[in-house]
Amino acid sequence: MLRSRERTILILGGIAAAAILLLSFVVIPDAAKVRSLSRQFSLAEKDLSDLRKMRPELERSDRDMRQKSLRVTAAANAKESPLARLTAALQEAGFPQSAFSLKSTGGKDGESFREESFDFKIENLTYLEAVRLVSRMENGPLPTIIRSAQLKNRYDDSKYLDATFRIGFLLPLNR
Known about the structure:
- With about 180 residues, the protein is of the alpha+beta class.
- The chain has helices spanning about 5-75, 80-90, 125-140; strands spanning about 100-110, 115-125, 145-155, 160-170.
């Protein structure tokens, strides 16, 4: 038989061992998990606030996409090729055919549209004419997108520039 003092020490030792096991296997891992989940929660809150800030821009992009989609479907029934239609649109903008070159660079299928790419090169263009041309191509009746623009000052007159535009002409996928 154990004396009462030994029994008390044994019980306190058992309680201490149980407390140590409880701390090492339950409390400490749970505290680490709580910290990890807290970090994930704060990151998720930050992402959500960023999405809320981006909402007007996303809505504007969605509106623009719907407008482009309407222009693509409206222009889908035209009998002319995209090259002929772009050439006509550029001539309507006031550029004679001898002043520019338009060359097809291939096409690719996207999620919603097929895009035919063209390189459009023009010389002796002012900055204002370049801006008006980009605006007309992006917002005009043709379903086009300006993918890139390279503007170089002319060596003989810095008021004029030579420009190369990469134009994407959008077509429906089923065409």
